[in-house]
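Write out the 3D structure for:
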Amino acid sequence: MKSIIVHLLLVLSFSIISFAQSGREGNGNYLSSTFLLTIDGGATYYSGDFSDTKFGFLSRAGFEYFFGTNSSSVFGLKLLGSYGQLGGKSTTGLLIGDAPARFSKEFNTKFMDGKFGLIYALDLGGFIPYLWGGGNSVVWFQPKDANGSKVYAKQRDIIMSYFGELGFKIILADGLSLNFASSYNASGTDELDGYVSKKKDIYLGGTVGISIIFGSAKDSDNDGVNDDYDLCPNTPSGAMVDEFGCPIKSPKDDDGDGIVNEYDKCPNTPIAVKVDNDGCPVDSDRDGVPDYKDKCPNTPSGFMVNELGCPLDSDSDGVPDNNDACPNTPSNVQVNDKGCPLDSDQDGVPDYLDKCPNTEINVKVDSEGCKLVEEPKEIILQGMTTFETGKSTLTDHAKKELYDIAQIMLKNPLIKWRIEGHTDSQGSTKFNQKLSEERAVSVMNFLIGLGVGKDRLSAAGMGESFPIADNATEIGRQKNRRVVITRIN
C-alpha cells in the first residue's frame, strides 16, 4: 500500500514539473491578493505499528489568503480542518488499551485535525502548482479494536505535529479552480492506533477538490500584468510587455526565423525553414546542403555530395564514390558492393566482357575469359603423312592438322613462327634441298590462307643437312623426312 502512495506522489510531482516546463509563465499571478474557500475529499493511508494498513476516507475544508504581487510567484497563508478515518491490521495481533489487557489484530479510528501554515504558489498560465507546510494539531481521535470496543487514548488532548503538502490548482473559470493534492502528516503521538511503542504514527493523504476565489486581480488588457501593477493598462492585444505591462519594442527579424537581423548570419532564410542559433538553415549531417534541400539527410561524415545532398556516384553504379573501388564502371554494368563489375567465375575477366562465363576455378584464361591454350614452342609434321612421295603437295591429313595449328597461332597474333623443311639422304643433295624449300613454302602458304599473318611466318629448306635419325634404315629415313614449325619470339 505504501508503495502505491509513493507512486502517486511521484506522478503528482512529475505532473507539476511537466506543466511547469510547458505552461505559459505570465508576468503576474492569478491568486495575487485573493481569498479562497477550499473544499476537498479523498483518502488516507496510515503507517504505524499495524503493518498491514488500509485506506480510509478524508474530507477537508479551509481558507486561503495570498498576498499581493506582480510576480508569477506568490506566498500566502492557509488554515484547514480535516475529518477522516485511519485503520490497520496485524497478522499476529498487538496489545492495545490499558486494562484489561487484550490483543487485537485490527484497529480503526476516526479523527479530526487542524492545519495552519505558509503556502507558496507559482502561476504557469492557469496551471498553479503549490507547496504548503506548517503545524498540524490532532484535536480528536478514538481508536477501536477488531470488536469495535474503544481502547485507551488521549482522545481529547491537542497533539501538535507538522505536515507538508504538494499539489496544484487548475483555473477552470474566473473565480473557480480544480485542486489536486498529496500530503504527509506526522501525528506527534504514538497513540493513534491504540498501541504505544517507539515508532510514531503517521498518515498520508490524497485529495481532489475545488476552490472558490474571491477578489482575484483584474487584467483588463490581457497582457499578463494585473491592473494594480500595470503602468500601461491599454496595451494592444498580442503585444509583448515588460514587468510593468508596457510594450517592448521588438527588434527586426526580416526573414521571420526567430533570429533578429543584428545576429542573423543568413538573413534571407526561406519561411518556415528550421534554423540554428546563427539564423542559418540547419544542416544535420553537415554535408553543406541544408536539411530543407537535402534528399539524403543522413549522409555519413566526409562523403562528397551533389546539389541534393546525396553521395556522389560518378559512374551511376549505385555505389558512392567514397566506397567505389572501381569508379569508372561502364553504364548498366552490374557491380558488387565495392562498385566493381561482377566476375562470377573469378577468372579475372568481368562478366560483361567474359565470353566464357563458367570457366573452372584456377584455369588460365585469355582476355575474353576463355581457357587459354598455350602455344607449343615446336611442332613437327612427319613427311610421310604430310606430303605425297617426292612432292610438296599437302595431303588431306596434313591440311586438317595445319587447320588446328592455325587456330593456335590465331589465339596470339604477336608470336612469329619459322617453318623448316627436312629430307632424308636418298636422291641428290640438290634435289633434296629444293624439295625441302618447296615443302616449307607449301606449309607457310596454307597457313596464310587460313588467316595467319604473312609477316608472322618465314620458310626455309634445310635439305638433308640435319638428320635426327640414321638414314641407313627406313625408320630413320621416315623420321628425317619432316617439317618443323618453331616459335621464334
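The radius of gyration is 54 Å.
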